[in-house]
Amino acid sequence: MIQIENLTKRYGAFTAVDDITFTARAGRVTGFLGPNGAGKSTAMRMMVGLTTPTSGTATVLGRPYRSLPTPSRHVGVMLDATAQHPGRTGRETLFLAATMAGLGRPAVDAAIERVGLTTKEAGRRVGNYSLGMRQRLGLAGALIGDPRVLILDEPANGLDPAGIRWMRGLLREYAAQGGTVLLSSHLLHEVEQIAQDLVMIGRGRIVAHGAKDELLRAGGTIVDSPDRARLGAALEVAGWGPSARPEGGFVVAADAQDVARLGLTEQLLITELRSAGGGGLEDMFLQLTADDAREGVGNAA
Ligand SMILES: Nc1ncnc2c1ncn2[C@@H]1O[C@H](COP(=O)(O)OP(=O)(O)OP(=O)(O)O)[C@@H](O)[C@H]1O
Ligand SMILES: [Mg+2]
């Protein structure tokens, strides 16, 4: 289990992580989702003691990461798969990690096998690895101490569709056996496929979190009418916070039945009415993070 309480990181006047609180539970894959610059990596670095929080706490298995004896036996960490030493072979990289965890060659062989690197690949210098192979190696390093918690920053980055499917299987299986997985991504669909719980972050703040299925259900209803102006006004008056979709119509925070009833009383012709479902989650992600996306905006408050 990973517990984050009121975690904040400021760099001067700029707040990179702003008072976030959530728990990643055992037996579940928790997706940490947010656009570029949202604060995911900063938050994860604080979880593993690489960045000191301005305030708040992060504990892993009930303790601050830094106070864990032989951390890699408890928590597997992969923060930047491109940071591995290019001159070492994959096997040497893992051997160092194993040694620090007080383990030997069998752990190295097991990790290599677990992530599907071939013996030949493991013998090559990391500098010659593809991004996908680096991710596998990074995951092998995280798994080497057979930890109960995994903290992975953008682990699917650079994996092809088959690689993503493979990783999804591995992480699901790991969680099914009682492990805790926290993984970050800036791609909703990637997280949607792997995670059971979601934490959405934008501009350092949590904008939504909960069980993925509930968030999907809460995605609202899509409705459209040839008389869009009147429909929009009626939805506004009903207090359902309609947001116009680029492809037409509105997403509203209401049941389809309630929306249909509104159409009836307002004598509005409804030409589209359905649950927003997964698309709703995407709309929500885009809406919630649109104003929060920092790319191109700089650090202006
Ligand atoms: N050491 C630092 N000094 C100043 N600002 C920093 C520092 N580290 C991170 N930031 C800023 O904090 C914000 C959050 O960065 P972070 O790397 O946590 O985002 P992210 O969600 O991981 O983004 P990405 O999806 O691009 O990896 C960014 O605006 C970044 O520039
Ligand atoms: Mg990042």
UniProtKB/TrEMBL annotation:
<keyword id="KW-0547">Nucleotide-binding</keyword>
<comment type="similarity">
    <text>Belongs to the ABC transporter superfamily.</text>
</comment>
<keyword id="KW-0067">ATP-binding</keyword>
<feature type="domain" description="ABC transporter">
    <location>
        <begin position="2"/>
        <end position="228"/>
    </location>
</feature>
<dbReference type="InterPro" id="IPR027417">
    <property type="entry name" value="P-loop_NTPase"/>
</dbReference>
<dbReference type="Pfam" id="PF00005">
    <property type="entry name" value="ABC_tran"/>
</dbReference>
<dbReference type="InterPro" id="IPR003593">
    <property type="entry name" value="AAA+_ATPase"/>
</dbReference>
<dbReference type="InterPro" id="IPR003439">
    <property type="entry name" value="ABC_transporter-like_ATP-bd"/>
</dbReference>
<dbReference type="GO" id="GO:0016887">
    <property type="term" value="F:ATP hydrolysis activity"/>
</dbReference>
<dbReference type="GO" id="GO:0005524">
    <property type="term" value="F:ATP binding"/>
</dbReference>
<protein>
    <submittedName>
        <fullName>Putative ABC transporter ATP-binding protein</fullName>
    </submittedName>
</protein>
<dbReference type="InterPro" id="IPR017871">
    <property type="entry name" value="ABC_transporter-like_CS"/>
</dbReference>
<keyword id="KW-0813">Transport</keyword>
